[in-house]
Amino acid sequence: MSIQSPVEASDASLTPAMRQYAAAKRLHPDALLFFRMGDFYELFFEDATIASRELQIQLTSRDRERSVPMCGVPYHAAEGYLARLLRKGYRIAICEQMEDPKLTKKIVRREVTRVLTPGTAIDSGLSAEQNNFLASLYLDEGVAAIALLDLSTGEFRTTEFTGAAAIEQAVDELTKTKPAELLYEAAHPLFNDAASAESLKALAGIRTKTAIDAYAFTAEYAIPLLERQLGTHSLDGFGLTGHGAAAIAAGAVLHYVRNTQQSELGHIDSIRFYERSECLQLDQVTVRNLELVDTLFSDGSAQATLFHALDCCCTPMGKRLLRSSLLRPLADRGEILRRYDAVESLCAELIIREKLRSALDGILDLERLLGRISLETAKPRDLLALAVSLRKLPTLRGALEGLTADLWRSNLDRLDALEDVQSRVESTIVAEPPVTLADGGVIQHGVHAELDELRAISHSGRESIAAIEQRERTRTGIQSLKVRFNSVFGYYIEITKSQLGNVPDDYQRKQTLVNAERFTTPELKDFESRILTAHERCIEIEKQLAEELRQFVLAAGGRIRKSGAAIAEIDLLTNFAHLAALRNYTRPSIEDRCVLEVIGGRHPVVECMMEDAGEGRFVANDLYLDASRDAGGPAILLVTGPNMGGKSTYLRQAALLVILAQLGCFVPARSLRFGIVDRIYTRIGASDNLARGRSTFMVEMTETATILNTATERSLILLDEMGRGTATFDGLSLAWAALEHLHAKIGARTLFATHYHELTLLADQLPRLKNVRVGVKETPQGIVFLHAIEAGPASKSYGIEVARLAGLPASVLQRARMVLKQHERSERHNVAVETEAPLQMTMFTPLSQTIVDRLESTDIDTLTPLQALNLLEQLKAEIRGLRDGKGSG
Ligand SMILES: Nc1ncnc2c1ncn2[C@@H]1O[C@H](COP(=O)(O)OP(=O)(O)OP(=O)(O)O)[C@@H](O)[C@H]1O
């Protein structure tokens, strides 16, 4: 028999509960419906199949005959299950019982009270290190705006982009931030436009995308909504003057949150408009390539990220700030210097540093606790956790008082110890509260007189029972008489069958069992109603007191958030000082010139990993680049050397050192001198982008195009093995031309690693390009990688040697050596022939092979004399072209 979903079935054929289910499901067809039935949330039909698969819970059936698939989770344990479904990208509608089943004779009323979506998750299972952003993308002619809200912490920001690349930049910013959910207006022409389709493709990486109504993305609707939420008449105070698109994007986010949460959003009382140029710009490709927060390969361990190497933060707020700062390092010299001053002063103060770290340790996530309290999902234990964390703030303030640097002072000013909130919570809630308010016993004795009295009645009830039991035994002479309670029959007197003859007349029969009878008396009934009423009233008063406490805490929400932000920054700076002291990091110095000078630099992640694995010491290296217009120093370093020699490590290390320095952190180097970098570009290896429908080479060229078109002299560019994704000579030519362009037109600090040794000849022509190589030592046992950077080009590539180390079969290696010798011989021959020719000829000499190929493929027997002459003419023209340096290949 086919199972008809209640949504399609006629209402008449359904049970009343299923009718309610169908009505709720109709309103939320795209969500898994968690339907509250007593102590369980039940799921039915398709929802049940999905939930049982995703949560690995038993699938049963509600109605054997119609076999309606069903599964359920206990309501008190639902949070974990909900969180798992949200992480998998599902939307969930929670349908609650709106009445107490005990108080109604009819079926209880049920309503969907909350819709949970990946972007609006606030559960305690969220990663403490990471924001959970709900994002929106608003497009209009020539402008693209995005807004990001972390509902769990209240962090809310927005930005907009204009110009031809607006959509691309907005998409890049979005993908970099990795929102849990993206809101957009599906019907908007720009979302369906062929021209923008390519730019929007990258959004494929965001798993949950939700289309919302067009009106939510209009200025008339979204802006007043935002103003109301923020409690202002104008958005100017939030930096939104003249940024209407950003305000609309933010309003649309609010619209969605209000519709799904149906609770106050008191903790969202501020928004920040930011510009990308405020910080060191790192596009999504660079964030990925440099493994700042995620590893490049899905099987890679998290230890390989810069975040992991740097994170010794003590609080979740500090960890989140570190992580988000890594994606947006500073670009303002003054701000960076203030951080250096703070780090330096604490670095020298071991005792204060340890005091700070121990005060920070154990401070829970104030931002998220506040979020839960505001959204009414906080449990009594959350409130207590807040208070316990606040208890540490006076110590934290005390430790800060010994520090004089600017940032420490300003954070001390921002850090409200919130003693009033802490003492009110601690004097209201018991030390070990039960899980929910409904269990009772959450509020302390002495808070509310009536509550204390009622509790005394409940308590004395137990003593009264014993007294009644004793008195009735004496009165009736039945020694086995018992006074008992159960939830169905309430209080009763139980008398065994053998003693029934002695039951007094005023006993009223209640229930008959096999061996006994149960009775009640007017006195017992009265007693029962007093006790039960007292209990219910207790819960009612406790709920009211808890709500008052909640309102009190929310009224201090702004102060709590401010303290939370101060704690995050204190934790971040303390972490930097800790790293500096622990790992011997040094204070960089900032210059106006576009210089990057590293002496004795180490790779912060590789160094840590080598230490952890006990794999010896990282070899420190120097680097010198000066891209200032008047500089004689090199702007471009061309790095050659064998595979495994350490070229990529050297390149990445340069970028990571700059990122650390612009975070305000000290760096793993004997010294670092640098001019502020506006943007880091990377073109590293082959990023697998087949999912986005582009070949490896296409991706490489697109990324290179972005660099060549948008880099400035203040940028830092890393190009690792550019051109290797295509035929050797195409790749070589492209790399050659790109280097010339970088040298002549951009002049940015550039590191270019390559296996094309031909490129090293460029150093003779381009005065600001310098060759360096990674050193190797040849020993009778094979090559040894020195990992040290030396001046000059590499003379050999050692590819076959590295292949030997990798364990290629000996026969293959032997054959490869023979082939290599032949090639080298013919190369030498060519070079000998061409020694008098211009430089380019040496590079393109092997292109003469194309002429040989054409001759070989020509069938002379079928050629007419005229065709033969034409062929000769074409070949000569080709050779002339090569000599003029244009090249045909
Ligand atoms: N300075 C260093 N000190 C110690 N070990 C290093 C150093 N630089 C690199 N290594 C180690 O050498 C290995 C190879 O480094 P890397 O990947 O940078 O080489 P590569 O020259 O880019 O190789 P390929 O050309 O094959 O990509 C890495 O495992 C790294 O840990």
TrEMBL record:
Molecular function terms, GO-annotated: ATP binding; ATP-dependent DNA damage sensor activity; damaged DNA binding; mismatched DNA binding
One of its GO biological process terms is: mismatch repair
Known InterPro entries for this protein?
A: DNA_mismatch_repair_MutS, DNA_mismatch_repair_MutS-lik_N, DNA_mismatch_repair_MutS/MSH, DNA_mismatch_repair_MutS_C, DNA_mismatch_repair_MutS_clamp, DNA_mismatch_repair_MutS_core, DNA_mismatch_repair_MutS_N, DNA_mismatch_repair_MutS_sf
Matching entries from CDD domains are given as: ABC_MutS1
Sites where the protein binds ATP:
G641, P642, N643, M644, G645, G646, K647, S648
Source taxon at top rank:
Bacteria
PROSITE patterns xrefs: DNA_MISMATCH_REPAIR_2 (PS00486)
A Gene Ontology CC term for this entry? cytosol
Assigned keywords, A-Z: ATP-binding, DNA damage, DNA repair, DNA-binding, Nucleotide-binding
Tell me the protein family, please. Answer: Belongs to the DNA mismatch repair MutS family.
- Mind telling me which PANTHER family this protein's record contains? DNA MISMATCH REPAIR PROTEIN MSH1, MITOCHONDRIAL (PTHR11361:SF34), DNA MISMATCH REPAIR PROTEIN MUTS FAMILY MEMBER (PTHR11361)
- Task performed by this protein: This protein is involved in the repair of mismatches in DNA. It is possible that it carries out the mismatch recognition step. This protein has a weak ATPase activity.
Protein name (record): DNA mismatch repair protein MutS
> Whose protein is this, by species?
Acidisarcina polymorpha
Lineage here is: Bacteria, Pseudomonadati, Acidobacteriota, Terriglobia, Terriglobales
